[in-house]
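Data deposition worksheet. Section B asks for the primary sequence of the deposited chain exactly as it was used as input, without tags or linkers unless they were present during the calculation. Section C holds the resulting structure in token form. Section D is free text for depositor observations; keep each observation to a single sentence. Incomplete worksheets are returned to the depositor.
Section A, Depositor: J.P.
Section B:
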Amino acid sequence: MENEKIINEGDQAEIGKNSAITDPVMDEHINEADRTLSKKSNVRKTLLIIFRSLLIIICSILIIISLFLFILYAVPVLKEILPRRKTEIVNNQELKKDALYKKQIGLVIKDIQRFSLKFNGYTSGQSYIVINTIENKFALYTNKKLIREGFCSSGSYTLLQTSGNKKWIFKTPKGKYWIRGKTTNPVWKRPDWSFVEEGSPIPSANDQSRYEYGVLGDYALALGDGYMIHGTIYKRFLGMPVTHGCVRLNDEDLKVIYNTLNIGSKVYIF
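Section C:
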């Protein structure tokens, strides 16, 4: 029995020694596991912060878009729905006797008369044409009545520049003009920019290569400074700003305008 006790005590001592030896290894594994868990926790926290930041940004963008749409669409609707304060016309005899009131009324009447004369000067009983370069439309009037309207083409506003710093801007001039000349079967004399545009050398002033037939239609009405109202072979582009400054029309509209307007007829371009 005593021998067994001695053996058991020796075994316990041996086990204690083994435990003492294995404890640092276990601690190392535990520390490694803790570090791994800590890294995973930090990654999750970082992802959570990024997700929350993205969510806040998206919500802010949606709020801004909603406010913009509200201002754009809802505010005008609310203005129409909400009752408006009506302006009342008051027949105040004392106000009419006031000297300052009489003076203001007199000035308004003079302005109306002045504008009426100016309007009548622009819209006389003679025939005239109005060219709208914004919408590329024309309107032909006779005796202040619209007799024809349709599409046209005006200047493209493109810039052409040479290596020698010579440049052209292809725009239709705006303002009040007159018909200075009328031509049937017009011949186009190509200016310098026409050759520069296609990359060809510029010929002499009266070189035969400058003259082209049949590209301006059957009629042309001169406005001065080389600008004309004429026909076109590019009818599919009517209604668009594609010209080098002249006003292009289709054949039917051009014939009516040519027969309606005379030399001296007014042309309004805006």
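Section D:
The chain has three domains: 28-83, 95-122, 128-269.
The longest helix spans residues 2-81.
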